[in-house]
Amino acid sequence: MAFYSRVSGSVGVITLQNPPVNALSAAVRQGIVDTMHRALSEPEVKSVVICGQNGKFCGGADIREFGANMRGPPLVPMIHLIEAAEKPVVAAIEGVALGGGLELALGCHYRIAHSKARLGLPEVTLGLLPGAGGTQRLPRLIGVPAALELITTGRHATAAEALQLGIVDEVTDHSAVDAAVKFAQSVAGKSLDARRISTYPRPRSPDLAEIFEKAMKEVRRSARGAIAPVTCVQAVHASVTLPYAKGMERERELFSTLFTSGQAHALQYYFFAQRAVSRWSTPSGARWDTSKPRPVHKAAVIGLGTMGRGISVSLAQAGLSVVAVETQEKQLLEAKQAVSGMLERSAKRRGVPLADDKIKYNCSVQAVADADLVIEAVFEDMALKKTIFQQLSGICKPGTLLCTNTSGLDIDELASQTQSPELVVGMHFFAPAHVMKLLEVVYGPRSSPEALATAMEMGKKMGKVSVAVGNCRGFVGNRMLKPYLEQAFFLLEEGATPEQVDQVLEEFGFAMGVFKVSDLSGLDVGWKVRKADGLVVPGSTGKSARIRGGSRYSPLGDLLCEQGRFGQKTGRGWYQYDKPGGRVAKPDPWLHGFLEEYRARHGLVARRIDHQEMLERCLYALINEGFQILQDGIAAGPEDIDVIYVLGYGWPRHRGGPMFYAGLVGLDKVLERLEHYHQVYPDVLGLKPCSLIRKLAASSSPPIHRWREFIQKPRSQL
Ligand SMILES: CC(C)(COP(=O)(O)OP(=O)(O)OC[C@H]1O[C@@H](n2cnc3c(N)ncnc32)[C@H](O)[C@@H]1OP(=O)(O)O)[C@@H](O)C(=O)NCCC(=O)NCCSC(=O)/C=C/CCCCCCCCCCCCC(=O)O
């Protein structure tokens, strides 16, 4: 709702009230309309201020109310009522003015912002466009290039930038409401003719055609199949080709096409999913709201390779004192230099103070003795990690949380090396660790709720989205990757090329296809794991070369590694590069010949595989594993898996994540295709539909927020 008060006798103040972000719910919109009428009808009131309760102007339309039965006064006429008022209306912007919130402010005659406020039109990130006049007013106010940039990226501008662009009229370091009231008094009775943005002339410039062409090209390149950015450009285009009223009709038309789209549903689902994962729970009933994190002031990182360096940077930037340990002096010096450079670049980019003095470097593990939390980030080698955990257990003060940065090793095995296994958790960072937003926080069967809460909180402090997951091989992300990769290899055996598989996945929206990713991260990484698992049998021939443990196996990756083809770093992998370390992937005729020779050797007849089959086999195998993970209680809900896949594995955000995508395709359809492929390839375990997807499909495929009801509680993990 919105409440009304009178200040200094002549200023009507309308305060939006809908915690936590004063979103424009039906009740708020109704409140604004009612209080506006009241302010306009009171003769003593000469001007009006609109503000938000608790230092937040407005977070935009209430996303939770989007749906079929929307009630209350619509936003567009409400904003027109404000703009048409004969008394000056001033927006007092504190906290945020986002989406419909900024559009409301643009309908006011003046805007005063607090210096810490952020303003933007982030609708594009929800699969929408600013459909309450934003695409027509903003370009009229600040010109097409700046409006296009803000609307197509959805980024938030600072108050200083908003002032520079002309979005706000004044910025204050004090109360924006007080400043707005004062301002409102000063403009009472003045003509408003030049203050109604909708009456401004259409933006004109000789190079507009070129600007739009460039913007369209850029959004098509970066959107990876997302439709909202393209539609945003079309809507802004209407502001230069059509008069305001017609432009608004066009905006409405384009908004309607987006509003009901699967992509908008996916992006809005994802918005809430990303927030939901912080409310973690475990099969044993430990929960985010009943588990208290321990205070952490000092952290330590052991091992300053690529991951350890990135983790040290993240910790220092979060304001913690860090002890960074690397036992080899030469490596320590190299790491110190590299970390300083990373911190400097990052401080420059983010406009924050340099955090270099937060890190102390040391050659001895003893230096971590008084740390509250230690993150071990040495090579992915269980024996080495075990030795370090044994050492840490003896060195660290009681109560220190011991974390391992591993992408899939057994947390419980490491915990068993220590005297306090309840204080051991996994922190699976993604490379580069100071950039990537995702953190899988892995709890073992003995980790305490407090340890888990501390690691989750630590992730948040580092600006990560932390997802709590159970302990199993590969946790959530890498466990699901296995059947996906496996299918990609099988497709090569059956006749596809890496380019064809990658093209299908990139057309789906992945930033990179599976083979390009493999070249980037290094083929030797998986090879080492497979060797440790006893899967690599050099020189094996005949049928046994392609079977392991009764299941189909492709040795293609192993064979490439045996040739020294490790991907980008060696200049050769699934593709060729102009030099070791090169980044531009080019098809490699050698690889094609190698595949032909391999198929001939194994009696495989190449066939033409259509796009649909490539996509279904890769994605449905991955999704099937996701259902198995839910069934096993490794992830608490589908949102956890989706957030992991979007933030850690390049799954296109506008498709919501693998589990949301499965629901969108239809669980019965996914099940039917899995059954089909499993019938064709009975020796591929990853294609055998898991019982949870069967159960859900048999229960008329309930919506994704109800899936948890169908998961049998697995045995306690915590
Ligand atoms: C920056 C934030 C605002 C705050 O961040 P932070 O402090 O970190 O807090 P959070 O954890 O993110 O959020 C706190 C809780 O608040 C919830 N929240 C936040 N914003 C909203 C919101 N806008 N609506 C609802 N709930 C919101 C959030 O989920 C948290 O709760 P929980 O933890 O999940 O429980 C940050 O939150 C943020 O960035 N928010 C989003 C800002 C945003 O994107 N705003 C734009 C919203 S869309 C919009 O404004 C669109 C306007 C266009 C016109 C709309 C027209 C209406 C529809 C007309 C229908 C026409 C039908 C057409 C079809 C036909 O023709 O047939």
List the helices and strands and how they pair.
Layout: E1 2-7, E2 11-16, H1 26-41, E3 47-52, H2 75-84, E4 89-93, E5 96-98, H3 100-107, E6 110-114, E7 118-120, H4 134-142, H5 144-153, E8 156-158, H6 159-165, E9 170-172, H7 176-187, H8 208-223, H9 228-241, H10 244-259, H11 262-276, E10 298-302, H12 306-317, E11 321-325, H13 329-350, E12 359-362, E13 373-376, H14 382-395, E14 401-404, H15 411-415, E15 424-429, E16 438-443, H16 449-461, E17 465-470, H17 477-494, H18 498-508, H19 514-521, H20 523-532, E18 547-548, E19 551-552, H21 556-562, H22 589-601, H23 611-631, H24 638-649, H25 658-665, H26 667-680, H27 691-698
Parallel strand pairs: 2-3, 3-4, 4-6, 5-7, 6-9, 10-11, 10-13, 11-12, 13-14, 14-15, 16-17
Antiparallel strand pairs: 1-2, 7-8, 15-16, 18-19
The chain binds ligand LT2ZWINM.
Task: Explain what the structure shows.
Monomer. In the C-terminal section; belongs to the 3-hydroxyacyl-CoA dehydrogenase family. Keywords: Fatty acid metabolism, Isomerase, Lipid metabolism, Lyase, Multifunctional enzyme, NAD, Oxidoreductase, Peroxisome. The two termini are 43 Å apart. An 8-stranded mixed beta sheet has the order 12-11-10-13-14-15-16-17, with helices on both faces. A 6-stranded mixed beta sheet has the order 1-2-3-4-6-9, with helices on both faces. It is α/β, with parallel strands linked by helices. It has 27 helices and 19 strands. Ligand LT2ZWINM binds at residues 20-21, 23, 59-64, 70, 75, 96, 98-100, 122-123, 126, 128, 130-132, 256, 259-260, 272, 275.
